[in-house]
Description:
- The complex is a heterodimer.
- By secondary structure, chain A is α+β, with helices and mostly antiparallel strands.
- Chain A has a single domain, classed as Histidine-containing Protein, Chain: A (2-Layer Sandwich), CATH 3.30.1340.
- Helix content of chain A is about 30%, strand content about 20%.
- Chain A has 3 helices and 4 strands; from the N terminus they run βαββαβα.
- Chain A is globular.
- The termini of chain A are far apart.
- By secondary structure, chain B is α/β, with parallel strands linked by helices.
- Chain B has 2 domains: about 1-245, PtsI, HPr-binding domain (Enzyme I, Chain A, domain 2); about 265-465, TIM Barrel (Alpha-Beta Barrel).
- Chain B is about 45% helix and about 15% strand.
- Chain B contains 17 helices and 17 strands.
- In chain B, a hairpin with a 5-residue loop joins strand 9 and strand 10 (about 265-270).
- The longest helix of chain B is centred in the N-terminal third of the chain and has 25 residues, at about 40-65.
- The chains are: A alpha+beta, B alpha/beta.
- The interface of A and B includes residues 52 and 93 of A.
Amino acid sequence: MSEVMGTVLLTHAVGLHARPSVKLTKLAKTFASSIRLATTPDGPWIDAKSIVKVMAAKVPQGTHVHFRAEGQDADDAVAALIDLVERDFDESRADATNP
Amino acid sequence: MNPARMPPTLERRGQPAAPGIAAGPLVRLATAGVRRAGSGDPGRERRALSEAIGKAVAALAGLIEAASGDAAEILAFQVAMLEDEALSAPAFERIDAGHDAASAWQAAIDAETAGYQAADTDYFRARAADLRDIRDRVLRALDGTDDDSFPPGAVLVGEDVTPSRFLGIDWTAGGALALFAGSSSSHVAMLARARGVPMVVGLGAFDEDGHRDAIVDGTAGRVVLSPGKPEWAAFETERARSRGRDAEEAAAARNPAATAGGDRVSVMINIAGADELAGLDPAICDGIGLVRTEFLFRQDGVLPGEEEQYAVYRRVLEWAGSRPVVLRTLDAGGDKPIAGLTIPGESNPFLGTRGIRLSLARPDVFRVQLRAMARAAVHGNARIMLPMVTVPSEIDAAAALLDDAVRDLSAAGIACRRPPLGIMVEVPAVAAAPEIFARAAFFSIGSNDLTQYVTAAARDIAAVAPLNDPGHPAVTRLIRNVVEAGKALGREVSLCGDMGGEPRHIPVLIAAGLRSVSVAPRLVGRTKLAVAAARS
């Protein structure tokens, strides 16, 4: 089974905070693959299905988030997670930095 | 202490946080402290912790159903954390190493909390409070002191209480809060005032052990533990008086207000969120004179989006029907900092970048709010009000942004309206020369800030608080000045500070020519009675 990787730029105003983290981990849990994320290509890699781990990483805005998935639906998982971050977690937001 | 012997009556004084008087059985609010004794059997401790976590999740799920908006999202986050095995795994490891469930859980969560306390940003530091909320909820479940196990009408005593805890308590049978710490400007105090739950804060720690009953006078800021005969008699008298007054006020609230001389006076309400309107009959008021919007921004670091704001404004406007609703744009800064928005470290925030100054400095955030307001305006009689205006050009700048927002929305085919744009009169520069602000569609006197800027004294600094008197002739003279300028310019003038809800100030406001006030919903009846007694 191959490993799938992907990277996306986090633009959300305060970073990966509570509401986006809930969305991200919930989405990750819909996949059978094991999924991990990191803020640098070299890790440390954390379980993307654990809200506790994801929140504790305190990922700030402007971070490149790297995903790694292993399993049958690894392709779909990485694509879906990257899409979620790119859609800015479906939040129509009052952006804190960009007009 | 021998439980059979009643301890002597103990009286404590603190600061009033929510008015009213209540008495009831005294219940200690469980705080983080390990109380449950361990069984010594790791298997049983594991089961106890699993069950407590399950109970906490179930309790939160129940709260989510009754909550909306930010409150629901905060609770949903807490549920997600509790359901994550990564949170409880270290606690179970400690249990296996021989610790009891409660101390294992406390140690595990405290370790997790430390990571947040050390965070670089306000937002992540603020999540430490969520973790403590989670920790305490599970500890209470372990102790068997569940949220809904309070006897009806209990007086809750403790260090402080979280909003989720307050919302989880059934207050319909009465009850009161007596807090060692706490603050009268906290979110909980606001909720307590809205629900009529008497609350006293800042009592300082005391030993409530052995006391069975307590009287809480939230108006005077007084708590009496184990009241004796004279205290009970005084309480009954005060309660009878307060009930009589409540009935009289409720009756007065149903009718339009007029002075003794027959002048009609408009009495509107101040609200800080759509939730406050639940159970409130629009017929008691002539409109909403102030919708505070800061509370949409209270979740640290997360600014509310256009849809979220639009939904709240629309709910408020639909509730009011054809009655006017004054939506105030964000009044952040001063004593209302918002992480990621207000400017930290200003030497004197009350004289710094607050209100319209901040909104104009952050047009990206301001535009979102103006768009949401213009869209909601389709659903009622909306007006937009700018806080902390100092010079007329601020109105022009805001009007230009509002016009842009309306144009963009119209161009995109989104329904919207351009509401009249008025101002708060709270900076003395405006109150002294209101005639140069003809570009404002209306004036609303913010007596709290006007008084603090005129007297150069803050209400929350005890040493100078007595100087902060809205009855000072300088303040009333400025109010008269604004009322007269409003007449000359053909602009409506109202007053939306606490002064309007204090019966002793009503005669001087009526004498100054003011014919419109906006007060807390609970004060509508009282205010109308005071108006009826005033000569015009």
